Amino acid sequence: MWNTNNPASPLNVHKDGSTVRVQVESVSFFERASGVGDLAQVRYLTAERQVSAAEARLTHWIATIQYAYTSPSKDPRVRRWNPLGFKIVDLTAEPEVLAQPSPEKRG
């Protein structure tokens, strides 16, 4: 994804100085029927700002994440960044469908 030969690489898409800010709105943890608790759902928004734009474009997302804890790295430099051995097994992100505000009744 980060290869500069990939036109969709963030290195290419944002080389003009545009930015993307991410804000996590909520995290929910789920337990499967088998009792395994390895799923999380993360609601977040992104604010993408083009260099010439005054306003950022906001989009809402929801990600479903399957995760696991593995043995931490034996390399202290790597273990410093992930001391618990947290690993994302699968991640699916989709645009969140937000409810439209209902029109006010006029009387």
Structure description:
The model has no long low-confidence stretch (mean pLDDT 91). Strands 1-2-3-4 form a four-stranded antiparallel beta sheet, with no helix packed on it. Helix content is 7%, strand content 43%. The protein has one domain: Nuclear Transport Factor 2, Chain: A (Roll). Strand 1 (19-30) and strand 2 (39-49) form a beta hairpin. The radius of gyration is 19 Å and the shape is flat. By secondary structure, the protein is mostly beta strands.
Describe how the helices and strands are arranged.
Elements: H1 10-13, E1 19-30, E2 39-49, E3 57-69, H2 76-79, E4 86-95
Antiparallel strand pairs: 1-2, 2-3, 3-4
Radius of gyration: 19 Å
Mean pLDDT, all residues: 91
CATH topology group:
Nuclear Transport Factor 2, Chain: A
Q: What is the CATH class?
A: Alpha Beta
The named CATH superfamily:
VirB8 protein
Termini Cα gap: 55 Å
Q: Outline the biggest β-sheet.
A: 4 strands, antiparallel
Q: Unreliable runs, pLDDT <50, ≥5 residues? A: none
CATH architecture: Roll
Helix content: under 10%
The proportion of strand residues reads 35-45%
The arrangement of helices and strands along the chain is HEEEHE
Structural class, by secondary structure, is mainly beta
What count of domains describes the coordinates? 1
Instruction: Describe the strand arrangement of the main beta sheet, using strand numbers.
Output: 1-2-3-4
Shape: flat
Helix tally equals 2
Number of strands: 4
